[in-house]
Amino acid sequence: MNDFGEKIFELRRKKGLTQDALAEALNVTAQAVSKWERGESMPDVALLPKLAELFDTTIDSLFGREKSPIVEYVPEKKRDFESAILKITVNDDSDKSKINVNLPLLLVKTLLELGLSSGQGDIEFNGIVLSSIDFKSIVKLVENGAIGRLVEVESDDCRIVVEVI
Amino acid sequence: MRISVAAKGHFPIRIVFPTAFICSRAAAKIIAKYSDLNLTEAELYAALKVLSRSKKSLRGMPLVDVGTEDVKVKIWV
Q1: Which terminal residue of chain B, N or C, has fewer Cβ atoms less than 10 Å from its own Cβ?
Q2: ipTM exceeding 0.85?
Q3: What confidence tens digit (pLDDT) does each residue in B32-57 have?
Q4: CB–CB of B47 and A114 under 8 A?
């Protein structure tokens, strides 16, 4: 038995096939399969792709020429600044109100640059000044790749969550 | 831009503005005049342009969703 024969024998057993069944699948005789496994002959090259497909492997692998897997470095996905959304949720228990604002970060940056703030980098929504949140810093953080929940402020009756999605 | 307002005891209101209008100089002029944003027309126009550019990133989320016991306001771009 040569390496190729051993491999066919091993794969055939693993797949639970008899020599007859493999022969039938490849349209050859059981004797031919037996000869391959004993190393007395080799299959026709035209049969190799079908043989590899049948065993869910590659032709290289049938001949023991295993290639080491290619390890590719896939960089961690960063949210592109242009498509990032600043999600601000304010739950005010005192009047049971809920404010949910989804602002494109690009817009936040523009508004800050235009000076739509109280002067310290705060943004005001309908009278609710998010004074505890430094939006300028948030924009900087996101520009450097930060993503997810960035600020969470909780008081007795109010909860503010700022996240980047 | 779609604005929907639902107030208790009132018919719901739904207003639809074409984005082309909302992001125009004319809209910027109106918003600058009647809103309390304290921005000039040119500044507003710049902000609206940015909003229009980044509307795809909202992926169906409302820009603003405000809800109290009596009133619910939603704005989509």
Answers
A1: N
A2: no
A3: 888 777 778 888 888 888 888 887 77
A4: yes
Q: How far apart are alpha carbons A18 and A24 in whole angstroms?
A: 10
Query: Which stretches of chain A sit within 8 Å of chain B by CB?
Result: 82-85, 87, 95-104, 106-107, 110-111, 114-116, 126
CB-based contact, B67 to chain A, within 8 Å = yes
Task: Kindly report the nearest CA distance between residue B14 and chain A, in angstroms.
Answer: 19
Domain that holds residue B53: 2-76
- DSSP for A124-162 reads EETTEE-TT--HHHHHHHHHTT--EEEEEEE-SSEEEEE
Number of domains within chain B = 1
A120 band by pLDDT with thresholds 50, 70 and 90: very low
Q: What is the dihedral of CA A31, A32, A34, A38, to 10 degrees?
A: 130
Looking at domain A3-62, its CATH class is: mainly alpha
